[in-house]
Amino acid sequence: xxxxxxxxxxxxxxxxxxxxxxxxxxxxxxxxxxxxxxxxxxxxxxxxxxxxxxxxxxxxxxxxxxxxxxxxxxxxxxxxxxxxxxxxxxxxxxxxxxxxxxxxxxxxxxxxxxxxxxxxxxxxxxxxxxxxxxxxxxxxxxxxxxxxxxxxxxxxxxxxxxxxxxxxxxxxxxxxxxxxxxxxxxxxxx
Length: 190
Description:
9 helices, mainly alpha
């Protein structure tokens, strides 16, 4: 979605490159608000090991999925010249919030789970994220040109909703996943 910001704001609102680049500050603002929410540990009774890091993301999963889907869908449906430019910009701030909550929670969970192999585990996650981030911009321009601003952003919103389930899946099946990892067994001395 961030690759489309300059296209959308240039075509719909007449923004130049510097002005459309400044719109991305709204993503940063959302991320800055989301980071303190997930970076604190919250004690939970009867929680699976290492799930403390996921607790805020899981408890706020509805909020997070709504923070991704609704604003992303909001951004997609507000991408019309007759809609004020602040409407999709505020939606981008909520998208930034959700991105930060989910990525930080999953990264902290992986760090806690893999202990002495945490650097390698985080590197593997970063590789996956960066591969996705590298290929999406290659498709973004043609996707937004072919589908239009509204449908291309809607498609990304639907994909984002599926990805918001990562903390819930780790909370639900994390023990099974950790049990199959030989690296975790070795890190725990077992």
